[in-house]
Write a structure and sequence with these properties.
single chain; Rossmann fold; 7 helices
């Protein structure tokens, strides 16, 4: 697998690619996530059934760049400022064209966007706002996000393959908003399951939100890879 560091409109991106990749995986992540990326890639390379490329887009301001709309602080004092539309435009208008032009085998390939935590919620939001992705890999997504459940009750996704997972102890939080995550994801899974044309699953992992993020994210992408292969 070849590793390359590229700039996407001034933002750093790490590109990992098999020879002749057939699927592009896009994963927004912050600097701290990079320490888990090697393990995630190791699992993907060992278990993926087809060659792929992974573009890891480095996010500098998590609460701005991945938030679908503005919201008051849920923990700490930093609000969410709703910069997800700009991040999606960057991915669609700059990242995808640059990567696919450098890897011609991706020209007619599949695309999957995914991530962990708020990055996973961003990927889910992209499923509704964009037709660019065939699959969504959402590991422990922040479905507690203010207004998210109302949003998904009133909109339909454009992506046809959506993976969800959650740790079985993630609801055990003193924060009232975060404690709703299990109730929210169960309802969301039911909504997706009842949506015509959507293939989905909800997988439960042992532990709280901070357990094996790399393994959980790899599992999410592996499910999505297999699912889009069947389309």
């Amino acid at each position: 697998m070849v590793e390359e560091k590229i700039l996407i409109d001034g933002k750093r991106c790490l590109l990992y690619a098999d020879a002749e990749p057939e699927v592009l995986l896009v994963e927004p992540m912050d600097e701290q996530d990079l320490e888990f990326l090697d393990r995630e890639l190791e699992i993907l390379k060992a278990e993926a059934g087809r060659p792929f490329a992974l573009a890891a887009l480095i996010i500098e301001d998590w609460n701005k760049e991945l938030a679908p709309w503005p919201a008051e602080p849920v923990f700490g004092k930093e609000p969410f400022t709703g910069g997800a539309p700009a991040t999606l435009r960057l991915i669609e208008d700059a990242l995808i064209p640059k990567v696919e032009s450098s890897l011609p085998s991706l020209e007619n390939g599949r695309r999957i966007i995914g991530g962990y935590s708020l990055s996973a919620l961003f990927a889910l939001w992209c499923a509704y706002e964009s037709g660019s992705f065939d699959g969504i890999a959402a590991a422990s997504p922040s479905v507690w996000y203010p207004g998210w459940m109302e949003f998904v009750r009133n909109h339909s996704p454009k992506a046809h393959n959506i993976y969800l997972s959650l740790g079985d102890k993630e609801y055990k939080s003193r924060n009232r908003t975060l404690a709703t995550v299990e109730t929210c994801i169960r309802e969301y899974s039911e909504i997706l399951s009842a949506t015509e044309g959507v293939r989905t699953t909800l997988e439960w992992n042992p532990g709280n939100h901070f357990v094996e993020a790399d393994i959980r994210t790899a599992k999410a992408f592996l499910w999505a890879l297999e699912s889009v292969s069947g389309d």
